[in-house]
Design goal:
74% of the residues lie in helices and 0% in strands. It has two domains: 70 residues, Homeodomain-like (Arc Repressor Mutant, subunit A), CATH 1.10.10.60; 136 residues, Tetracycline Repressor, domain 2. Helix 1 packs across helix 4, helix 6 runs antiparallel to helix 8 and helix 6 runs parallel beside helix 9. The radius of gyration is 21 Å and the shape is elongated. With 213 residues, it is mostly helical. The longest helix has 33 residues.
Length: 213
């Protein structure tokens, strides 16, 4: 067998492996959002993916690690996208206020993604019973967002846009309306829906008023 044929076969196997991996992720997402983390079974994930249960363990060593990968795929942007977004902020030439406003508009847009919302509910519901998932969610999603918010606020303080004490404002206080609006609509939107576009702009305006000198 010549090298060209061997390379072609290796490439085909790699594509098949990637396709199977993606199928497991999609099947797990469907199962987790339908049943919740605790009730979801790997047998049912395998059935959705049309593979044997043992095949899942060739890619993931536990249900927890599978769930973490689902969260990475569905809740977190790809690494290259995250890097591009971070770089765009680093080279942003406008004011810190504009940067912060744009960042929060981005957060609201992300949170309105219908794929993200049910998974977010699962994460919040299950982390109390699974400390490892709590740490994972914090390290992968919460801390980077808070760090970025703090950096933007510090920039505004340094250039005189924001009052000096703005650097002491909890990032949780700035971010919490984003989370609240999503959870409110998921739980109570049938009775008193929040207009997310109007809510976002109202939040951003109030936040900037509070931070300015």
């Amino acid at each position: 067998m010549n090298d060209t044929i061997k390379a072609g076969m290796a490439g085909k196997r790699a594509l098949q492996k990637e396709a199977r991996h993606n199928a497991i992720i999609e099947a797990a997402f469907e199962e987790f959002t339908a049943q919740g983390f605790t009730a979801a079974k790997l047998d049912d994930v395998a059935e959705r993916a049309r593979i044997g249960k043992g095949t899942i363990y060739l890619y993931f060593d536990s249900k927890e690690s599978l769930f973490e990968e689902v969260v990475r795929r569905k809740l977190l942007p790809p690494a290259e996208v995250a890097e591009q977004y971070s770089a765009s902020l680093e080279h942003f030439e406008g004011s810190a206020a504009d940067m912060l406003a744009n960042h929060f508009r981005h957060l609201y847009a992300v949170m309105r993604n219908p794929t993200i919302q049910p998974l977010l509910l699962i994460v919040l519901a299950e982390t109390a019973r699974f400390p490892a998932l709590t740490r994972f969610f914090y390290e992968e999603m919460i801390r980077p967002s808070h760090t970025l918010i703090e950096r933007i606020v510090d920039r505004g303080v340094a250039n005189g846009e924001f009052r000096a004490s703005a650097a002491e404002v909890y990032p949780q206080l700035l971010f919490s309306p984003v989370m609240h609006s999503v959870l409110w609509n998921l739980r109570f939107g049938e009775f008193a829906p929040i207009d997310m576009d109007n809510f976002a702009e109202t939040h951003i305006d109030s936040m900037l008023r509070a931070l300015r000198v």
